[in-house]
Amino acid sequence: MSVITLKADNDRIIDVKDLPSKANDFISTYFKNESITYAKMEKDLFENKYEVRLNNGVKLTFYKNGEWQEVDAESANVTFEMPHGIIPIQLRQYIEANYMGVRINSIEKEGRFTDVSLSNGLDLRFDSNYKLVAIDD
What would the pLDDT profile of 28-83 be if each residue is shown by its tens digit? Predict the structure, then answer.
């Protein structure tokens, strides 16, 4: 019997200018009034990602090509509102119709699903057509 050790989870602080251009475009479009606390590249066993923390507490995660994966505002100031352009209109309409006044804490692209975490403790999962497929509390 042999033991194989695989090294993963190698995080490295990077300069903001070293982020993929799509990531920088996303930040300048939706968070232009926020400063970046840090940016890092996360090298995992199967993929590389970028994480950016903003001074307002929002954490952004990007795939290696710069496409956004997650916007996590759970640690953000309670007055923070998720920028409208990030939430697909179908999801925003569903949440406004069914959870009026509830804040969106995070949104994450997870394969063909989009997961939304709400400030009331509910996690909603939508399929690629933005139909609700699961609720977790």
Answer: 999 999 999 999 999 877 889 999 999 999 999 999 999 999 999 998 877 789 99
CATH code given to domain 1-69: 3.40.1420.30
3-state SS class at 22? helix
**Which CATH number does 81-137 carry?**
3.40.1420.30
Instruction: Report the amino acid identity of residue 120.
Output: N
The structure's pTM equals: 0.89
The per-residue pLDDT for range 101-128, each reduced to its tens digit, is 999 999 999 999 999 999 999 999 999 9
Give 116: exposed, middle or buried? Use CB within 10 Å, 0-12, 13-18, 19+.
buried
Q: Which regions of the chain carry the CATH code 3.40.1420.30?
A: 1-69, 81-137
Go through 20-43 and write b for each residue having 16 or more CB atoms within 10 A of its CB, e for each that does not: eeebbebbeebbeebebeebebbe
Closest CA to 134 of 113, 108, 110, 111: 113
